């Protein structure tokens, strides 16, 4: 029987899975550097799963997908979508941005796959937004249309950082002085954590001890550095304000989700932070956002699930 496959491709590894009625199965991870090209990596999965014949697939990849030719940002792989479909002997192949896949996972995630932060109840088929602090800051919206879920692409991670309190102003001023512009990505990413920490340490005339975001997070969670604690506290506040802005922009009655590789390292800290208070702190528009739920994505395979949802929406069973 013919099968569908999905792949989630980053700069370091590629994860491939078989699509099932309930999601994905037979997930295998390969190192990108072990293969000269993407067709060889996926071909290895086909070989490892020789009991199945794959005829349709969807690849979620960490780079812009603007036409037939795809070139990875953080790896040497480059390919033609049409040529790859032919090489893999597929009837249908879709290649989408990795955050497009993340967005398509959101409507299919169950309660056990997310952690809700604060109150709020999602409306069925309501607009949804997701942002993911990681190496950078990805942002995506998804809306229900007559032909199914449709993502609304953009570069929301590069909007201006809008200070809300005096500590934000300290961070904003530091970024203006050092970079010439304060963007959301410069406060909500790995280097964003370090930027906040450096700004607060400099403002307190304290030494800038830590050089890596992981060091800051560890010191904050262990309670061994007050400035690191203040950094993580402000990071959560800034995320809350940003999430509230996304809710206002798109009437995200289906919820706001946090993805990326950073926030999942301290879910309890976020739960106990001012994230939700800052989310709702929209003055006369508080009533507009207070019933909108906010979630942390806890499902590690959400990229593959989103690629599967996209594939199923765009192909016959």
Automatic annotation (TrEMBL):
It holds the Pfam family Glucokinase. ATP binds at residues 7-12. Belongs to the bacterial glucokinase family. The lineage of its organism: Bacteria, Pseudomonadati, Pseudomonadota, Gammaproteobacteria, Alteromonadales. SUPFAM superfamilies: Actin-like ATPase domain. It is found in: Cytoplasm. CDD domains: ASKHA_NBD_GLK. InterPro entries: ATPase_NBD (IPR043129), Bacterial_glucokinase (IPR050201), Glucokinase (IPR003836). Its EC number is 2.7.1.2. This is Glucokinase. It catalyses: D-glucose + ATP = D-glucose 6-phosphate + ADP + H(+). It comes from Alteromonas gracilis.
């Amino acid at each position: 029987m013919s099968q569908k496959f999905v792949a989630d491709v980053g700069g370091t590894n590629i994860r491939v899975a078989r699509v099932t009625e309930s999601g994905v199965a037979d997930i295998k991870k390969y190192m990108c550097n072990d293969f000269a090209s993407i067709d060889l990596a996926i071909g290895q999965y086909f070989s490892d799963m020789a009991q199945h014949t794959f005829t349709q697939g969807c690849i979620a990849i960490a780079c812009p997908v603007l036409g037939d030719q795809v070139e990875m940002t953080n790896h040497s792989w480059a390919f033609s979508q049409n040529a790859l479909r032919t090489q893999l002997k597929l009837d249908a192949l879709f290649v989408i941005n990795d955050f497009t896949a993340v967005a398509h996972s959101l409507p299919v995630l169950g309660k056990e796959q997310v952690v809700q932060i604060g109150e709020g109840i999602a409306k069925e088929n309501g607009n949804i937004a997701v942002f993911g602090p990681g190496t950078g800051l990805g942002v995506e919206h998804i809306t229900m249309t007559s032909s199914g879920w449709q993502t609304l692409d953009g570069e929301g991670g590069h909007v201006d950082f809008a200070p809300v309190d005096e500590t934000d102003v300290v961070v904003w001023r530091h970024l203006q002085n050092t970079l010439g512009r304060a963007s959301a990505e410069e406060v909500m990413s790995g280097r964003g954590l370090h930027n906040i920490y450096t700004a607060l340490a400099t403002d307190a005339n304290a030494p800038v001890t830590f050089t890596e975001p992981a060091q800051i997070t560890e010191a904050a969670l262990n309670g061994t550095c007050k400035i690191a604690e203040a950094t993580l506290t402000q990071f959560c506040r800034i995320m809350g304000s940003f999430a509230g802005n996304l809710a206002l922009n798109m009437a995200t009655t289906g919820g706001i989700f946090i993805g990326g590789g950073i926030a999942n390292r301290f879910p309890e800290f976020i739960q106990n932070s001012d994230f939700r208070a800052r989310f709702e702190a929209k003055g006369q528009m508080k009533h507009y956002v207070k019933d909108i739920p906010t979630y942390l994505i806890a499902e590690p395979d959400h990229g593959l699930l989103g690629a599967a949802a996209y594939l199923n929406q765009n192909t016959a069973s």
